[in-house]
UniProtKB/TrEMBL annotation, chain A:
Keywords: Copper, Membrane, Metal-binding, Signal, Transmembrane, Transmembrane helix. This is Copper resistance protein CopC. Pfam families: CopC. Residues 25-120 form the CopC domain. GO terms for molecular function: copper ion binding. It is found in: Cell envelope. It comes from Actinophytocola xanthii. The keyword Zinc-finger does not apply. The chain crosses the membrane at residues 149-170. InterPro entries: CopC/D (IPR032694), CopC_dom (IPR007348), Cu-Rt/internalin_Ig-like (IPR014755), Ig_E-set (IPR014756). GO terms for biological process: copper ion transport; response to copper ion. One of its GO terms (cellular component) is plasma membrane. Residues 1-24 form the signal peptide. The keyword Amino-acid biosynthesis does not apply.
Automatic annotation (TrEMBL), chain B:
GO terms for cellular component: plasma membrane. It is found in: Cell membrane. Its main location: membrane. Coiled coil: none annotated. This is Copper resistance protein CopD. Keywords: Cell membrane, Membrane, Transmembrane, Transmembrane helix. GO terms for biological process: copper ion transport.
């Protein structure tokens, strides 16, 4: 029992060395256009403000705008400045409710997603984006050298099997 | 050999009970925290959305099993080890296997978390490396995989050479490998950051020691009344310390996280996170009740080396522990609110 206590003490000492800054889940604290607000003209940029810095990186943060009747609107690549994520927006079209969907990488490494809605009071002269354009681009980008998830899982199972075989071999010799 | 076979017949149900409980807890938690898809933003594949929590819970169960199995020789006690050799040999082999499962689960979780962050049809090795370089949780999984592999190596050495690899060392490595994920978990609020991180680490260590210890004692010693009579009282002391630590640290972390943005009652009853915390508290209450029954009703009979209903009660306790681990996996990933 005394040796066990010493193990626990060592483990607890290790804890103190481990205590590095940790972060919580980011949450949205504000946006421009604000949630459930009404705007007269179509905004040229979308800004989402979070309570903590957002991780930067290509393809990690996305913002999308969906208009009335499910139309897609062109949003440029999202840029991160500390805790603000912004993206340029082209002219919007008909009046109605628009939904800003976002998915960002939180400081703690967890993706956080959500949505903000606003109403456009005065019609703009933009036209909706072809819905497949952005999807196609994304597919092409990640397809390079990308392996489907089941291939990885299969690899893991093979690794496990090999390890088990080794373990049983050694165990057999030990007897 | 016949003795090994009788223990083998005991071995299967408790593992199934623990894994089953853990999966059930995860699924309940997932249903509770189910969020509506966000318009226009690509969602990760269903394989990733549901597979990741499942892999994470398997990782936790493998970790707990590794800790418990390496604790067993310490619980049995030095002077009893030669008598217990047949049982301990089985424990060493099972410990090596669970450490390997632990390492492989960590690697699969790493790939799945990469896919979760960058939804798309596939995951390239470069994307995984990028994820590791960028995100703390990725680095943590690499450390876990490496430490679990060290654990596997030590386990293999122990299988080959017996207790020349001290069980204290194996336990220490296994406990140490639990920490990286706690450090990068999100359940550490911006307020009282250092304190809540350490509290979370203690929570994970105590929960693993308690669950793993109980599992190992029941699975491998239930059929050996003489060994049980020395190991169970020691385990009981360990369990008492662990339950106190789990309760205090769990309540503390829950309070810190829940009161961060809104009032306690609001967060506790109004959010999925709060409901999960309540479910875990219920599990803790049940575990304390069952543990108390084992300690005060069954332990005296075990000490007299009589036949007891220990296996049944311990099975119930393992199932509830599994549920709590499953809730914990979802809790560690769910946002408050």
């Amino acid at each position: 029992m005394r040796r066990f206590v010493s193990v626990v003490v060592v483990a607890c000492l290790a804890l103190v060395g481990h205590a590095t800054p940790a972060f919580a889940h980011n949450s949205l604290i504000g946006s421009n256009p604000a949630n459930e607000s009404t705007v007269q003209e179509s905004p040229s940029t979308i800004e989402l403000t979070f309570d903590q810095p957002v991780q930067t990186g290509e393809g990690l943060n996305t913002i999308a705008v969906t208009g009335p009747e499910g139309t897609n609107w062109t949003v440029g690549p999202a840029a991160v400045a500390s805790n603000v994520v912004s993206a340029p927006l082209s002219d919007l079209g008909p009046t109605g409710t628009y939904r800003i969907g976002y998915r960002i990488l939180s400081a703690d490494g967890h993706p956080v997603s959500g949505e903000v809605t606003f109403t456009l009071a005065k019609a703009g002269d933009g036209t909706p984006a072809a819905s497949t354009a952005s999807d196609g681009e994304a597919t092409a980008e990640t397809d390079e050298g990308g392996l489907p998830i089941w291939v990885w899982i299969l690899g893991a199972v093979v690794l496990l099997g090999a390890g088990l075989t080794v373990a049983l071999r050694i165990g057999g010799q030990g007897r | 050999m016949t003795r090994a076979r009788t223990t083998a017949s005991f071995r299967f149900p408790p593992v199934t009970v623990l894994v089953g409980g853990a999966l059930a807890g995860t699924l309940c938690g997932l249903v509770l925290t189910l969020a509506a898809p966000v318009p226009g933003v690509t969602e990760p594949d269903a394989v990733v959305r549901y597979g990741l929590p499942v892999v994470r819970v398997l990782l936790d169960v493998a970790a707990v099993a590794t800790v418990g199995l390496s604790l067993l020789p310490i619980l049995v006690g030095q002077h009893r080890r030669t008598r217990a050799e047949a049982v301990l040999a089985g424990a060493r082999r099972a410990g090596a296997v669970s450490a390997l499962v632990w390492a492989v689960c960590a690697l699969v979780a790493l790939v799945m978390q990469t896919a979760e962050v960058k939804p798309g049809p596939g995951v390239s090795p470069a994307a995984v490396l990028d994820y590791v370089a960028r995100v703390g949780a990725g680095k943590a999984l690499v450390f876990v995989a490496a430490l679990a592999l060290v654990s596997f190596g030590l386990g293999l050495a122990a299988v080959k050479t017996g207790d020349r690899v001290p069980p204290e060392l194996r336990t220490a490595v296994a406990l140490f490998a639990l920490l990286p994920m706690a450090v990068t978990g999100h359940a550490t609020s911006a307020r009282w950051q250092d304190l809540s991180t350490i509290s979370l680490e203690l929570h994970v260590l105590a929960a693993a020691g308690w669950t793993g210890g109980l599992g190992a004692v029941v699975v491998l010693l239930a059929a050996h009344r003489a060994l049980l009579a020395t190991a169970l009282p020691r385990f009981s002391t360990l369990a008492t310390v662990c339950i106190a630590v789990v309760a205090v640290t769990g309540v503390f972390n829950g309070l810190v996280e829940l009161t961060a943005a809104r009032s306690l009652t609001d967060a506790l009853f109004g959010t999925a996170y709060g409901v999960l915390v309540l479910l875990k508290l219920t599990c803790l209450g049940l575990l304390a009740a069952v543990g108390a029954r084992i300690r005060w009703r069954l332990l005296p009979a075990v000490l007299r080396q009589q036949r007891t209903a220990l296996a049944t009660w311990a099975m119930l306790e393992l199932a509830v522990m599994g549920l709590a681990i499953g809730f914990g996996v979802v809790l560690a990933r769910a946002p408050v609110g």
